[in-house]
Amino acid sequence: MTLDTLGAGGPPCATGPAAGAGDLSGIGRGFGAFVARAKAAGRLVVQPRMGMGSPRLMREGLLATRRADATTVGTITIDSYTRVGNHAAARRALADGIDLNGYPIVGHDTAVTRAVLHGVQDDSFPVQVRHGSATPQQIFAALVAAGLDATEGGPVSYCLPYSRTPLRESVANWVQCCELLATLAQTGAEPHLETFGGCMMGQLCPPGLLVAISVLEAMFFRQHGVRSISLSYAQQTDPEQDAEAVRALQRLAAELLPDTDRHVVIYTYMGLYPRTPAGARDLLVAAARLAVRCGAERLIVKTEAEAHRIPTIAENVAALELAAATAAGEPRGGGPVGDTGVYAEARALVQAVLELDADLGRALVRAFDRGYLDVPYCLHPDNAGRSRSYIDSAGRLRWAEIGAMPIGHVVGASRPRRVTAADLLGALSHVESKYDRAALGRPAAAHLPAHDRVRCADGGEMAEHDD
């Protein structure tokens, strides 16, 4: 397979990153090494969530990401059929010319994926595969065959929110995948794996639990041979609480993963996203500022189109460049953050799990079985479903119910708090409404037709959509 066969967009990127990004080549290899070089140069690495079914478009997206005026890494996001293991459906869609919502890395021949990457992926522009699967063995096999060595997910974070796969099976699947990825170290590569545990459910999971699951998944990866790991945390509802959470994540990782190449990746808000362009940009800017303030090394961006549709390549590049420009204007590691107990809560959860079994996989299964880890509003059969969260009057995520999680001594005596359906509906749109209101200078959704509104818990109105 050649570039000409693909009809791919443009020649290989022999000139490297755009002038604004600078030359980060020549110091170490692999995804983790690239991020470390950027950190040493004082730059935040920014990354899209891009994925296209067409090899030609996927290559164009990677080239555009590489050429952006930012320090970037590339993304190949997998389609929904491949995510759930329905590779026959992905292949039928390709044969019928049906557009997919991501790149079917298993459905495409390995030679096709190698051609997509030819002249694009190298030590100055690593590419990560993003998938969302609890049964990712064929995805891992395909990415390794194509010459890729960076991906993400986790046995908990890609099982409970996205599948009905029993957690025990997901753990076994992820053991196989970690061990396969780790074998690449024998070839001189340094494979990299990112936890998704800091992003559970996208929103309404209090930071202490996000930090704990992110750290536990990182320890699981390390136990199965992966030496270069990033730990995720998704922007939530309050910048100060988020800053405290990121510092807690860094502190716990330093304590529990001392022999691991690691960095922290921030995800721009993953819940209902502002519908106004200005509100969407403001939320991305806030995420970039959070990353720089806390010394996080990488940021996953979102675009102005996020609330409406899958973004174009140009919209992804605009988001990358806005985030990079914001980061360049912010002082890194700025100032102390408060301590409201996020570290203590995460530490208590991690410790409780570690005491269950020396094998992290068995410990995670037992922890969910006993309710020591309990993700609010998660309907997976292996989640206890006894915890609840809410957003307080200051805009911070709090526990309304902790179920059997061993954090009562940290959370305090203010619980329990009844969460109504109206409370939950209001909380789901809290961030969207906050940023849209600020952008519009008037109540959110006032510009929308009546049929496109729902009533908020506080009596106001918000936009309704199906993200």
TrEMBL record:
SUPFAM superfamilies: Cobalamin (vitamin B12)-dependent enzymes (SSF51703). InterPro entries: Cbl-dep_enz_cat, Glu_mut_E. The keyword Transport does not apply. One of its GO terms (biological process) is anaerobic L-glutamate catabolic process. It holds the Pfam family Met_asp_mut_E. Keywords: Cobalamin, Cobalt, Isomerase. GO terms for molecular function: cobalamin binding; methylaspartate mutase activity. This is Glutamate mutase subunit E. It comes from Krasilnikovia cinnamomea.
